[in-house]
Amino acid sequence: PLHAFDYDLLGANKQIVVRKAREGEKFITLDDMERELTSEMLVITDGQKPVALAGIMGGQNTEINDNTTTVLLESACFQGTNIRRSSKKLNLRSDSSVRFEKGTDVNGVIYAVDRAASLIQETGGGEVVAGICDVYPVPQAPRRILLRPERVNHLLGTQISLDEITEYLHKLRFKITPMDNYLAVEVPTYRPDIEMEVDLIEEVARLYGYDRIPSVLPSGPVAAGGLNPKQLFIDRVGEILAARMHEVINYSFISPSWFDRLQLAPDSTLRSVVAIANPLSEEQSVMRTLLLPGLLDSISRNLAKKNSNLAFYEIGKVFYPTTSGLPEEKLKLGAITAGTTEVNWLKHKVEMDFFYLKGILEQLLIRLGIRHFEIEACTVEGYHPGRTALIKIKQKEIGVIGEVHPQVLQNFGIKARACAFELDVDVLFEMAEASIMMQEIAKYPPVERDIAVIIKNEVSVAEVVKVIQEEETAILNDIVVFDIYAGDQVPAGYKSIALKLLLQSRDKTLTDDEVNKVINNVISALKTKLEAELR
Fold first, then answer.
1. Which stretch of DSSP H or E encloses residue 448?
2. Is CATH 3.40.50.300 correct for 143-212?
3. What 8-state DSSP symbol labels residue 217?
4. 447-534 CATH
5. What is the fold, at CATH topology level, of the domain defined by 229-431?
6. Are 27 and 90 in contact (CB under 8 A)?
7. What is the pLDDT of residues 449-477, one digit of tens each?
8. Which is nearest to 378 in space by CA: 409, 399, 352?
9. What mean pLDDT is reported for the chain?
10. How far is residue 30's CA from residue 50's CA, in Å, rounded to a whole number?
């Protein structure tokens, strides 16, 4: 693209200078619109004032008119990304900007201005003054690519001769230098799409004719694709959760204001984000550091559309900034519930509260072969204090589960109670069993025994269950907590826990002595490790 200036309307120095615009600088373009420029935009000036938006549109102050007698032609090659960014910010798209966005030949600048001057003279438009002012500090050399003729025929399944290949490339104005077993091809700078050998082979195929290329089977080895173990694991997690939840896929880029809605502390590490260089809007300007805000937004949108019985899960990446430049990416699993379960003639509605979601989580872990895990009370930003817990497997934290804080729900426009969990998929993958072993159902009858123990209030039920499991694993099949009591019947600062123990042997019928021995060992362990007393 060229631009013509009225030479007499340029400043006293009769020059054009390319520079960055000043922040807030005003300029009237040829379409009679005043534009406010930013410091990232390129402008052409006469040494004092802007006379053109580089690569986009000229200025009204140097426009060619009926009184013009002397014309200055400008031919340049501007960076396409800068032109596109400026054009988008100004909402000004011209034929010139479109050409520069797609890329122009830097070595065609002189040819273009010479050709334009020649046409002006040939059509009687004026007299061309000798001389060109050219600023080209680092000339771009044509790209040189090595082409193997046998590679051409191997990829295309043809028998094209060396002379034919050379002829086709000559027709495209490529310079050819024959070497021992290949051709050295010099690609003109106006063909930036030709970057490697296969691009040259594509050009040969185009001129040879696609209809002349025979249909043959692939000559190379056929490799069957497949999913790796981690991808299979992710699919498995999705299949398990899909039995009771709907999958959602949210954007990885979010609004910084969402961290305020989550009531994160100003110095929270979750506020340390990866900013997007060219965001579509402020609402999508940073990469997410957790899945919860996207899940809450999904709940809010569905409630606004009168949808209920909401249970969503999402498997996606979160992003954390690093000193190396590239962000750290972690795969997370998030889930959220709000409202009640569906109602029919057979069953009443059930609120999808903390324990409902905890049940889904437990079923997920069990289906993944993780039967022993701990849930430990904690406090996490964005969640309800006293209704939040860490999830641990073998003393390793894999995530958090809890009821979302009421103020956070209000900030997202959610009037129903909501519960959520978020897990680290990488850690979950490490802990999960690669395969689940099946075994025959025991032939011998089980024995149930109930015990009730009094423990301190600060001792959790999980600790009690853990002590029992560590004490007896051979014939202890299951532990069920069926009652927790705190009141007048127990001392202050203590609570009573009632448990049902299911004992069963795979080899024989258990005797009373064997069962009593196990129960006594369990009670003794609880007394020793947790200072529990049999009620």
1. strand 447-456
2. no
3. -
4. 3.30.70.380
5. BirA Bifunctional Protein; domain 2 (3.30.930)
6. no
7. 999 999 998 888 888 888 888 877 678 88
8. 399
9. 91
10. 13
